[in-house]
Amino acid sequence: MELFTGALFDFGISLVVAMCWGILFGTPSRALFAAGLLGGIGHSLRFLLLTAGLGLIASTMVASVTIGLLGIFSAHRIHHPPVVITLPASITMIPGLYAYRSMLGGIKLTNLENLDAHPGLLTGIAHNVMLTFSLLFTLAIGISISALLFRNKSVKEIRFNKSSILKNKAT
Amino acid sequence: MKNGPGSPEKIPANRLAEFILDAGVFLMSSGAHSGRVWRNCERMAARWNYHINISPTFTGILLSVWDKNNPDNAVTRYKASPPSSVHLEVLTRISHLSWKIAYGEISFNESVNELAEIRKKKHYSHWVIAGAVGFACGLLCILAGGDAPNAAVAFTAASTGYIIRFQILLKGFNNFLSLIVAAFVTSLIAGADTVLGLGKAPEMTLSTAVLYLVPGVPLVNSVIDLLEGYFPASLSRSLFAASVLLCIAVGMTLSILLLGISNF
Predict the structure, then answer these.
(1) A28, closest residue in chain B (CA to CA)
(2) Among A101, A146, A158, B71, whose Cα sits 20 to 30 Å from the Cα of B164?
């Protein structure tokens, strides 16, 4: 039960966060809620996977690929390119904390006494930098999943079922 | 690429290249990755029976167009991109425009006019964005383990930083300067709860409040370009993103040193 409320809390907050990023990036107002929904689903999925004991990078990977696939589906529904909604949704998981920690480590590194006092500083920076880049890569893979998995270069040409084929023919 | 109804008009290569380049650099500076720029441009050019080839980079686009029926009707042109300002609605609008062109629903002159219309499309108001940015950073602070006082400080820090940044940009100062000042102001305010000992996770305030400055779109786009093989575009995007990150670091360093590094 605690897990459920935790995931719901995570979902609600990241929904609003993704919508706010959407506003910063100029996502059209009609697509804002979809962006929020995707951000909420992705982030709470990551929360659940992290709780289940999957590593940070693996959980982010699964979450961002989920966002990417749902993005293709909802792009057909709301008639916007998927990137308009998947980008703000994925930015909720941007590894800001690790980027910040590696930068703070870098600032501390300029002082040699500091380095002598905390020998773990350098390994800490290396760890945080690697984590930042790995997480960034997983986010990019999620957003470009349609280009990676499907042979059709444009998402508009990806078909799910017969009715959408008929609809596309009609237009 | 299938063509829509009706036979397409004859457009001189020069005019077509200009139109495609206008759309292309506009897409690029609004936050589209190179693959999307290429697809949109190709779709539009195919309607008027042109082949295209593009060398996209973040700072400009080099484009060749040549007539499918008359190879002598060809031109190669370059156009520099305007300064990057992420606006995803432009991606939607130009994508819709390109499909309308591909289905033959719209003439060349109408397309040029519609592109000019898209260019006039306004972003959200700066004050709305300032609020949104504050909410996003405050809520991320809660997600990262902060409590209400931490989130309130993060909200104030991020909104104030954003307002100061756009005021600086409105006055026409350098983009990187505006980032340094914004990062400085944001982290100065966000450092308040560390110094005063407010809330249960003051470290999180500082790390989440500057998140609105992180160049998420260029960073993600640079990796997408890398995956799709547009190496020059990927390289220039990551350079841009890295310099933005450097500016944030400089601004934060100034305020952290001012507040006392031993506090962090």
Answers:
(1) B89
(2) A101
Q: Where are the domains of chain B?
A: 13-120, 126-263
Counting Cα atoms < 13 Å in the Cβ hemisphere of B155 gives: 15
CA distance B15 to B33: 24
Q: Which two tokens stand for residue B137?
A: 């950073």
Query: Which residues make Cβ contacts (< 8 Å) with residue A143, sequence separation at least 6?
Result: A64, A67, A68, A71, A83, A86, A87, A90, B220, B224
Q: Do B143 and A19 touch (CB under 8 A)?
A: no
Interface predicted TM-score of the whole assembly (ipTM), two decimals: 0.88
**Predicted model pTM:** 0.87
Closest Cα in chain B to A102: B249
* Three-state secondary-structure class, residue B72: coil
The answer to whether B150 and B200 have CB atoms below 8 angstroms apart is yes
Q: What's phi and psi for B74, nearest 5 deg?
A: -145, 155
Residue B7: partners with Cβ closer than 8 Å, 6 or more residues away: none
Residue B77, SS3 per DSSP: strand
User: Chain A contacts of B123, Cβ < 8 Å?
Assistant: 26
Give the three-state DSSP class for B50: strand
The conformation of residue B159, written as its DSSP 8-state character, comes to H
The backbone torsions φ and ψ at residue A111, rounded to the nearest 5 degrees and listed phi first, read -110, 115
B203 — pLDDT class (breaks 50, 70, 90) = confident
Phi-psi region at B74: left, alpha or beta (left = phi > 0; alpha = psi -120 to 50): beta
| Tokens linked to B146 | 């902060």
B56 beta partners: B61
For residue range A72-85, list pLDDT tens digits in order: 888 888 888 888 99
**Token couple for A148:** 């990676």
What angle separates helix A121-143 from helix A96-109, to the nearest 10 degrees?
150
Which residues lie closer than 8 Å to B60 by C-beta, 6 or more apart? Answer: B25, B78, B79, B80, B81
